[in-house]
């Protein structure tokens, strides 16, 4: 995971509240076997509407989403974060996030910053008055700046530390690689190994046919 | 300090104890992989440039999507084919052992582990599948995980986990004839509810459990998840050791002795404290069937479809009404009068050799009811081969059943084996959710014995309904009671069935 200190990118005002994970990415896209390439699935139901914010030239390359309250509710699918990241978003700001979504974001390196609703309104105004305005998000200082407006955001210390260190769950665990190696050293020899493979003699399996 | 079985296994796998609300880091002994939940995990590794830490503790098989007919031909469904091709490519790239369609060791992931002797007492076993709880029957801690956890285990062979609570489920006495371990677990779920086990590891104990064969124990632990639990466990004993001995990956020589000595310590101490306890009398049990759309909506087969108006609890009443509407059942109908269209015998719950033997024993020399389709799908290719060696396939075919290749099949209908809308099945699988076996399909969960009797009569039935009490010998082929209840440890099973005869000779 990339380390996150500051990020500057086009701000996208999403004037909707209660955007659930089904709206972020509909269930039909969950059948895929890849973990990237979900950018086309992001907000799929709205993308056909020419007036939808991401369909407007000035916002289409956005990377800082400024959304209404209760973002990311509904099913716990990790795909919601993948789709936002694949589209190019690095930051989502909202006055309230669903817990699971916020947890998943932290694990995947997407900054979910909690901003007071008045400040969200101010950001929306700036971004709508001058489409294409860039927002600078400073994780160290916990602030987001658009033009001459700077608003604070909240993020818990632990997630902030992880993002700044660029550590995903696996990265965190691998900090204890020595402990894991020591545990493996002491592991009893009767515990099974799948390799080298042992099995009974191979036999031919007759394909069943329709009767 | 006195400990439960679950606590002992947990402690033995602690890489690091979490402090201040941080989770413990647990080592994983065995990681089972299949095609549905692994693709994005492997891709995650690829994106981060990480290897699989322990390919030698990982094994993959194809099961959820695989067809059970024409397995030598290309898979028709595109999603299924893509998932399987992806697994094959990933296994090759990351050096993971894979048993593919057509291989004698291919099969449902929860059959492959035990059958190869990889599943043992005292292990931590994980798989991206909720029925991983099956492996707890050997006295290990086995549970299902999500895709990002699959990636985590592939990369680190560990998982950060918060401790579970423990629940003891004691089943006293002996099962009456015609009932099986499936009826025990259906009764447990009906008793504690589908959420009753939430947050718990269930430990099954008591005389009735001790008498069960290994495969019958797997059936019980398998369905722990249907009670909401993360895992189910049974302390290992001689039955466990005998099952394992001589299997391909079972320890040998000094390792075997050391293992058995350790395994014998794997039991809850007499004064261990559980967070909850449930007691059941086996003698009270009857064959169970479900009537609704969750596994907790089950009743003894002698009962009638419930009348929602009689249910006091408001939310349960509404749930029952909705279930009955979906199931197309009239309140008050005796369960024995419910007619089925399909009987499915298979899945990781009841697709093992003992299950097939007990079904064969009941249907031998009989014909299925006319309008019923009967599907017999062994849990693994080995089970299929074994059944063929014992001549069971001939019994099934003579009965009028379809004898298929191994896989999950109609348990979840990801392959072409599905119920049509409105079609009703008696199924030996584990989930009766709406649409589980096919869109609009109606599922009644039953034991293999009930499935067999139902296939003969065409309506939900138990073996007692066959009216042939003297003719149906309620013992397995080696003389022990059916479904392995009270079965002696498996040794060389003596089979007194005719060997397969060439088609022309009959
Ligand atoms: S048989 Fe059914 S429950 Fe078992 S692993 Fe396959 S799909 Fe899951």
Protein described:
Chain B: This is 3-isopropylmalate dehydratase large subunit. Chain B: Its cofactor is [4Fe-4S] cluster. Chain B: Keywords: 4Fe-4S, Amino-acid biosynthesis, Branched-chain amino acid biosynthesis, Iron, Iron-sulfur, Leucine biosynthesis, Lyase, Metal-binding. Chain B: GO terms for molecular function: 3-isopropylmalate dehydratase activity. The complex is a heterodimer of chains A (about 210) and B (about 500). By secondary structure, chain A is of the alpha/beta class. Chain A has one domain: Aconitase, domain 4 (Alpha-Beta Barrel), CATH 3.20.19. Helix content of chain A is about 30%, strand content about 15%. Chain A is built from eight helices and seven strands; from the N terminus they run βααβαβαβαβββααα. Chain A is flat. Chain B has about 500 residues and is α/β, with parallel strands linked by helices. Chain B has two domains: about 5-280, 2-Layer Sandwich (Aconitase, domain 3); about 290-475, Aconitase, domain 3, CATH 3.30.499. Chain B contains 16 helices and 19 strands. A five-stranded parallel β-sheet of chain B has the order 5-4-3-6-7, sandwiched between helices. A five-stranded parallel β-sheet of chain B has the order 17-16-15-18-19, with helices on one face. In chain B, strands 11-10-9-12 form a four-stranded parallel β-sheet. In chain B, about 60% of the residues are buried. The chains are: A alpha/beta (about 210), B alpha/beta (about 500). Chains A and B meet through helix 7 and helix 8 of A and helix 2, helix 3, helix 5, helix 10 and helix 14 of B. The complex binds iron/sulfur cluster. Iron/sulfur cluster (SF4) binds next to helix 12 of chain B. Iron/sulfur cluster binds next to helix 12 of chain B.
